Amino acid sequence: MSATRRSPTRGILVLTFGIVLAALLAMHSLLPTTSGIALIVETMLPWTWILVALLLLVALFRLSLLSIAGVVVPAVVWASMFWPYLRPASAPEDPDLTLATQNVGAKLPQPSATALSIIDEDPDIVAVQEIASLSGQIIEDQMEGHFTHGAVVDSLGVWSKWPMSQPEEVDIGVSWPRAIRTTVHTDSGDVRVYVVHIPSVRPGMESARNIALGKLADAVSSDPAERVIVAGDLNTAASDRNFSTIGEDLEDSREAVGGGFGFTWPGVFPVTRLDHVLSRGLDPVGDEVLGRGTSDHRAILASYDF
Length: 306
Fold this sequence. Notes:
Blueprint: H1 2-26, H2 37-43, H3 49-61, H4 65-86, E1 97-103, H5 111-119, E2 125-129, H6 133-146, E3 149-153, E4 156-160, E5 168-169, E6 179-186, E7 189-197, H7 207-221, E8 228-233, H8 244-247, E9 251-252, H9 253-257, E10 275-280, E11 283-289, E12 300-305
Parallel strand pairs: 1-2, 7-8
Antiparallel strand pairs: 1-12, 2-4, 3-4, 5-6, 6-7, 8-10, 9-10, 11-12
Helix pairs in contact: 1-3, 1-4, 3-4, 5-6
């Protein structure tokens, strides 16, 4: 008798928690930005599937319509938000263009290993951030030994197997170059490539990042180029409300092809994706997260068809 009386109560608790979780997922944009609350919660939204799984375990102990509803409601909301990433990704066959990007980490140890891990993938274009000191020079030398064309502007580098224009700085509100653009003259037509390193973000200290994202979005939207790729460390998860600033008019390679969330940071055990490859006027056909070398970010290899 006592077990029968407890069952409805437990079902109500599961349903209540499930509704609260579903509301958090559906209305996370209403969370306050004070003290970085929104930043932390929105960055970790993909991991809320763990809470859904825990709800399922609790519901299995006391099966009832209420407990089942308490699991189904947040599960449906979570899946509706992240279904593009959940689709199995197929390996691209002979894409027209491949681009690798990585924040190699300032003053990293064994820089040759990091550079070679990218070169071994034989990408057509490489975008690198945080080139600094001796390690940065070693990476630059490795890239120049492999690619015919390339340039470094401050801590940003871009290399290509095709001819490219001299990179120019893009103003994103930072006192030193954190965004550059060049035109790569591929066999199938010109592609404007932006290499970007958006300022880092900490809970409660997001204004510099948000301003930079806004200025970058303005520069890209006003760019008349038919084909555009924006690659680099955006210091913004796709689930962060501020990602739409730059991502609204561009297509995220990972979201386009699926295959999981493609987390890139931290390099040893990634829990979020701060690095992105976004495009306009191209068809994303592949997105692979590569090894980290010795960096604290993993590299991305994005593939495109014209």
